[in-house]
Design goal:
single chain, mainly alpha, 8 helices, 9% strand, globular
């Protein structure tokens, strides 16, 4: 959290787009248990309308309010003893291999298809992951930097968007497919690494890294 607060302090504008501090949104989502509704009954002492912006990674707020939010989150985290990590069990193979076509990239041979549990927590995880993937697509599509200052080439951006849009469609379906989600996580990891290597588009890199982590967690929770 200290690094997040330093990033906020370094922003030179009086108003901050919450998408410019994705790490803060991800910490808040972690605290709220990956729910898009829990902010109505949160323990952070924040206005629901403000917290909703961070949960959805959309909107703006005055810099001093964002800073205050980060301070409250840091205080909350310090009051907790620890965060329990999800436990990985042995992998269970399921059924129905198929082929998924990702436009302009390649075809993926379906590895394992399983129905998505209808538990509210699982649906909330899907909603949170979808929010991050949509935010990445928006940042990739509307990046207005010179090409030399972008982490991905035009072809790589088109491929990334195609894969993410396909992953979003799969996440909304009654059945989810393991191979595509694993490949999506791998591509996000590669993209995040590229931003570090080129030292450009740090916020995009943070989002891709976080999306990769959450997708891996989701895969483990559904396919184990």
């Amino acid at each position: 959290m200290d690094e997040i607060i330093r990033d906020i302090d370094s922003i030179g504008t009086t108003t901050i787009q919450v998408s410019d501090v994705p790490s803060l949104s991800m910490v808040i989502l972690e605290i709220l248990g990956w729910t898009n509704t829990a902010y109505m009954e949160n323990h952070l002492g924040l206005e629901p309308s403000l917290l909703s912006k961070f949960v959805k990674m959309r909107g703006s707020a005055p810099k001093h309010i964002v800073r205050k939010t980060a301070d409250r989150v840091r205080s909350y985290l310090r009051s907790q003893d620890q965060i329990t990590a999800p436990t990985r069990n042995s992998e269970i193979q399921a059924s129905t291999p198929n082929t998924i076509t990702v436009t302009s990239v390649r075809q993926f041979r379906g590895e394992v298809w399983v129905p998505v549990p209808h538990r509210s927590q699982m649906q909330q995880k899907i909603g949170a992951i979808s929010t991050i993937l949509n935010s990445i697509i928006e940042q990739v599509n509307f990046a207005n930097r010179p090409e030399a200052e972008q982490a991905l080439t035009a072809i790589e951006k088109a491929q990334l968007v195609a894969v993410l849009e396909t992953a979003l469609a799969v996440l909304r379906a009654p059945l989810v497919e393991k191979a595509l989600l694993k490949k999506t996580a791998d591509i996000l990891g590669e993209g995040a690494k590229r931003t570090v290597e080129k030292s450009v588009q740090d916020n995009l890199g943070v989002l891709m890294s976080m999306a990769q982590k959450r997708l891996v967690e989701f895969i483990l929770s559904v396919f184990t």
